[in-house]
Amino acid sequence: MAIELRNGLRSAALSLAFSVLAASCGPNSSPGVVELRYMAWGNPQQLALEESLCDQFSKQNPGIHVRFLRLPSSAYQNKMVLMLASHTAPDVMRVDHYNFPSMVRKDYFLDLDPFAKADRDFHESDFFPTAISECKFHGRLYAMNVLFGGIILSYNKNLLHKAGLEDPFQLWKRGEWTWDKYREYARRMTSRNREGKYLTFGAAIPSFPTNLLPVRAYGGEIMGKDGHIHLDSPQAMVGWNMWHEMETTDKCAPTASQAANSAYSFESGKLGLEFSFIGTSVRYRQTIKDFDWDICPVPKGPISGATLLKGNQLVANAETKHPAEAWKFVRFMTSEQTEWLLSAQIRRCGPTHKRFALDPAYLESEEAPYNIQTYLDVVEHGQTLPITDRWAEWTTAFNGPVQAWLDSGDGEGRSVLHQGTQAANSVLDDREGF
Amino acid sequence: MKRRFPTTSAIVFLLLVSLALVFVIPLMWTVSGALKSAQEFAKEPDRLVPRHIVFENFGKAWRALPFAIFVGNTVFISVVATFGQVISSSLVAFGFSRFKFWGRDALFGVLIGTMMLPSQVTMIPVFLIWRDLHAIDTFIPLIVPSFFGSAFSVFLVRQFFLGIPRELDEAATIDGASHLRFWWSVLLPISGPALATVGVFAFFANWDSFEGPLIYLNSPEKYTLSVGLRMFQDTDGTTAFEQVMAASLIHILPTIIIFFCAQRYFLKGIAMTGLGGR
Amino acid sequence: MELSRLRRWLSRPGPWGFFFILPWLVGFLIFTAGPMASSFWISLHIYDLHQMDYVGGENYRRLLFKDPIFWKSVRVTLTYACFSVPLGIILSLGLAVLLNQKVRGQRLFRTFFYMPSLVPAVASALLWSWVFNADNGILNQGLSVFGLPPIKWLQDQHWALFAFVLMSLWSSGGPRMVIFLAGLQAVPDSYMEAAMLDGATAWQRFRSVTLPLLSPVMFFNLVMGVIGSFQVFTNAYVMTGGGPNNATKFFALYLFQNAFEYFKLGKGSAMAWMLFGTLIVITTVQFRLAMRWVYYEGEAR
Q1: Which residue in chain C is spatially nearest to B95 when comparing CA positions?
Q2: Of A73, A374, A410, B142, which sits with the fewest C-beta atoms within 10 Å of its C-beta?
């Protein structure tokens, strides 16, 4: 009897001890540990990477535990809006740069300026100015740039050699990589078989806003100081017509229907030149095995040779209960060591730290892409799109007719651009909120 | 029944085969895409028969995310929600079809009307309610509403109930059965096919449901298959299409099997349950 | 005395009917009525999730008189409904009638026809871009067999909407077929046998026995089809984003863009209420008309 009772007591005590232990292992119940919620989107590889970063941060900072909320990219905006509206948003979030300007105006994000000033290790001068300027609102720091980058040009070296063309990266270094050259390259890298079926195309017509590159290069202006869209100006028309003619008269780029379903994708080896974001290198390294490829900066025109920037912003929730920890985490996610992993090792993005530009190890690459200097051109000279809070709306209005013209030749160029521009301006003229 | 001309059934068969081809061929492309290596898919996405069949995409997709947990969550939510929807819908449909009461038709109109309000506009207020009930990041917002009956299911079951002759009710009333007993022991058994139809629809709807799990769940360990599947599609990074297809097949395979097996029950025919022979 | 009054009250059907619909009524009052009221309130404001300004009926007025895209989306949606609903019902009824015969492989066929509806949106978007590919898509290959010229399905603003109609036939054919099948199986054999004894041909039997008995399910498919066609969203969102040139700017898509991409919740709510109102009118008309052609065996009148 007594033994039985004692055994019973012992097992009860044991199980109690276990349950206490189990409870203390939970992230919430351990006293003094702050739970920081971080939300981001991405494909499974990207999310796995960020999760390991979160774990690393939690390990380095025993007082903080990061809980990582991961979302599919196509639904991120929807969920974030809902969370912000219901005051359930996480402490730190990644925001697309298309949405950042409209959201920062609504006071959703924490002003990081005081934290940056108090942080002795933080110096704005360590960063490329382009990386910082995208994150400011009314002169104050509201975010830090992550997955920073911009538009680059990938090219298929095999097709290049076949056409007997010089490497465009060399042309760029001599300052000769122009839009005229680009068009010529595209023509010469296009080939057909005897029946007239296209074997390769020299170039692919990019979509908005990448297709603005030649528009700006020839002096076209997206948004003027008057806050109006000027994409139908004569200078802009030079760029627009170039795309249209490449498709219709040069026939060196697939039409939208030919390009559908990635039949002439860069990865297939059937495309010579492709504009893309830096991040595509990650997949190209995996899928491209039977031809050589590399990257180079975008061509230049008579007025400008600047590429377009595209980054994401890491922001803290204005309502966070742990602002100091949030800043610490933001700093960690945008630190040199994190960026080294993302930008130097897997080539997922460009650098924000100036120091990288001087580091030979950064510029060295053991597999394609080799021309890492392209990244530096992006972050040093890239320009920001005039993203205001009605960006999504006016670009949709603008692109309706313009895309139909570019894709299937509906309408006449000048009048189509005029129509699209007017549609965009009538959006911008309308009272906000309607 | 007299035997039919063999030609008629041959024509029917041929017609069915050709229609089935139209319905299935597009899917075959998904299957073939999932069986191509990343390199081959990049090279020839439009080729229907892969040059080399590989199964690595299924493994890659499965390992990329904790799919086993997602499957468990999805099964749990779908089963419980389906159960709730079948029970509640048949009760409500019974009320709407077998009784005359003040305001019945107006209320039924309201019920139909609730299907017409786009879910996007009530999303925020409904979310706020669940937030105040502290049900965010639980399965509750995904399951509990099913127990209040869905308009679609109520409408469908009502249509079936209306097709069942009134004589049955009268016979049962003469026998002295209460309404609840009539519902349970007479109406439910003979409406097996209708309930199974509703059940299957409800199950598939929950299985596929994306919006609800997306907005109400935060912890990855509570995610469902459909949320996981969407992660393969990346709008600004790069999408591994061959893995999207493999993951899609993982997503739909259970539902195809369920449909194949369940149709026996929900399409058995009412003759078996004693109504047809009358 | 009191007890007998209660018993008398309970013996009437009214309270019981009310009792049975109670689960729905409670759910409706909590999760639908309140949110609906608040969305109506929002529709009288301009609201960007930050500031809320009362503007009265201005959202409605601007939609009706100043927004060409709104009217475009109305036209797109109506055109789509006019094609996809009748065609879909005819197709799925045909499938159901064929499958109601005793054919070999019946279960397999049903599964085949149902499968497309199970494909999630992500996969179906990829799949359709392959089917509709103008250059070498399977659909154009099929057309060329009949000597027809290729069509740029998703890039041509005159064809894109029709491509969506085809998709809807493919993906909703199965579920509708199942509903018809379930209805068909409820047609008592005795009715058929009686009609056969009277010497009715197959078509006559179908017209005068099957169709009337099928009318409740037909009505269901019709009402749900119309409602569904007014709410097309995911495919348009994932595949075309409303293009080319707004040719597939469905009403629900434009609504979503306004509410969640442009932060115009007032406008989005106003659109929702206009859609709601329109559907109520259409459905009421359908129910009125239904009295003439839908045949119920067991309705409580």
Answers
A1: C17
A2: A410
**Cis-peptide into C244, omega within 30 deg:** yes
Question: Which two structure tokens, joined as six digits, stand for A414?
Answer: 């000048």
Which chains does chain B touch, 3 or more C-beta pairs < 8 A?
Answer: A, C
- Please, which chains are in contact with C (at least 3 CB pairs closer than 8 A)? A, B
CB-based contact A395:A424 (threshold 8 Å): yes
**CA torsion sign, C168 to C171 to C174 to C176?**
negative
Cβ A73–B234 below 8 Å, yes or no?
A: yes
Interface contact flag, B234 A42, Cβ < 8 Å: yes
Give residue for tokens 């497309």: C116
| Inter-chain residue contact B100 with C300, CB threshold 8 Å | yes
Least Cα separation, residue B41 to chain A (angstroms): 8
Among the partner residues C99, C188, C296, nearest to B278 by beta-carbon distance: C188
Structure tokens at A287: 């899928």
> Helices C265-293 and C34-43 sit at what angle, rounded to 10 degrees?
120
Report the half-sphere exposure of A273 (CA within 13 A, side-chain side).
31
Distance CA B47, CA C142 (A): 16
pLDDT value of position A22: 40
| ipTM score assigned to the predicted complex | 0.81
Q: What is the pLDDT of residues A249-297, one digit of tens each?
A: 999 998 877 776 667 889 889 999 999 988 888 888 888 888 999 999 9
Whether A40 and chain C come into contact, CB under 8 Å, resolves to: no
Nearest Cα neighbor of A278 from B240, B42, B238, B234 is B238
Q: Rounded to the nearest 5 degrees, what angle is found at the Cα of C216, between the Cα atoms of C212 and C220?
A: 140
| Contact check, Cβ <8 Å, A433/C246 | no
Condensed to tens digits (0 to 9), the pLDDT of residues B144-196 reads 999 998 888 998 888 778 777 777 666 666 555 677 777 887 788 877 777 88
The yes-or-no verdict on residue C135 having pLDDT over 80 is: no
A35 and A65 in contact (C-beta within 8 Å)?
Answer: yes
DSSP at A128: -
Predicted model pTM: 0.85
Tokens of A2: 């007594």
Query: Does residue B18 sit at the A interface (CB-CB below 8 Å)?
Result: no
Q: How far is B233 from chain A (nearest CA, A)?
A: 7
**Residue A16: what residue type?**
L
- Copy the structure tokens of residue B120: 């996007």
Kindly state the tokens that stand for A104. 């920062």
Domains in chain A, start-ordered, CATH in brackets?
Answer: 34-148+310-376 (3.40.190.10), 151-308+390-429 (3.40.190.10)
Q: Which chains touch A (3 or more CB pairs under 8 A)?
A: B, C
* Interface with chain C: mutation pick from B28, B30, B105, B120, highest number of C CBs within 10 Å: B120
C-beta atoms of A43 and B240 within 8 A: yes
Question: What contacts A21, CB < 8 A, 6 or more positions away?
Answer: none
Would you give the distance in Å from CA B102 to the centre of its chain? Answer: 33
Give the pLDDT score at B10. 83
Does the CA dihedral A140-A141-A142-A148 come out positive or negative?
Answer: positive
Residue in chain A closest to B136 (alpha carbons) equals A88
Tell me what percent of chain B is helix, strand and coil, each rounded to the nearest 5.
75, 0, 25
Domain chopping of chain B, boundaries: 52-273
Window C:238-297, CB contacts with B under 8 Å? 252, 255-256, 259-260, 265, 268-269, 272, 275-276, 279-280, 283-284, 287, 296-297
Of C15, C263, C213, B75, residue with least CA distance to A108:
C263
Asked: is B52-273 a CATH 2.60.40.3080 domain? The reply is no
Among candidate residues C182, C160, C152, the one with its CA nearest the CA of residue C83: C160
CATH number of C67-293: 1.10.3720.10
Collect all residues of chain A within an 8 Å Cβ-Cβ radius of residue B230. Answer: 72, 74-75
Q: How far apart are CA C183 and CA B194, in angstroms?
A: 9
